Amino acid sequence: MTHPDQIRALITRLARLDASETWDDALNPAQVAALDYLSRANRFSRAPSHVADYLGTTRGTTSQTLKALARKGYVRERRSETDKRSISYELTEAGRALAGRSRALEAAINTMPDIEQTRLGDSLSALLARQLRENGGRPFGLCKTCAHHRVTERGLQCALLSLPLWPEEAEQICHEQTAA
Questions:
Q1: Are 96 and 11 in a shared domain?
Q2: DSSP of 9-55, one letter per residue?
Q3: Beta carbons within 10 angstroms of residue 76's beta carbon
């Protein structure tokens, strides 16, 4: 049996190696993580507070990270039309290109047999869920697995927000996610 310290060290090392691939793009690991999150989050989940909650960082740190990404041209700030104090971020073309690049860790995972990928994904998901429960963190999750996700004759709907969803949002992360 592998010791828990060894498992933690393996996860940490994999995360650092994965993040290190973007140093060539002048991004630090926090910026990489924020860019990755924004590329996978739905339009309701891109406020600085959502990014901070997902990454487990302070709002101040996240705000500085997002501002740096904006200066570098990877994201743009969008103010709410109904509440000008409300800000969210969206990826620019350059941000989408960078976030969409395949990296070595993804390539290594793709070489694993499907059954091993499934087991690893299930194990890491369970570990994350335990960690979040212990720390009082928000679960986040894919829109399509949420209790509020509805398929109607008019298309997809978020019952919580009473708003229509774009088809691609079913596969994106939502900060309002509630287990079905």
A1: yes
A2: HHHHHHHHHHHHTTGGGT--HHHHHHHHHHHHB-TTS-SHHHHHHHH
A3: 13
Burial class (CB in 10 A: 0-12, 13-18, 19+), 47: buried
pLDDT tens sequence for the chain (180 residues)? 778 899 999 998 998 888 777 776 678 888 989 999 999 999 989 999 999 999 989 999 999 999 999 999 999 999 877 776 789 999 999 999 888 787 888 999 999 999 999 999 999 988 888 888 887 777 777 888 888 888 988 889 888 888 888 888 888 888 887 776
Residues 173, 84 share a domain: no
Answering whether pTM is above 0.70, one says: yes
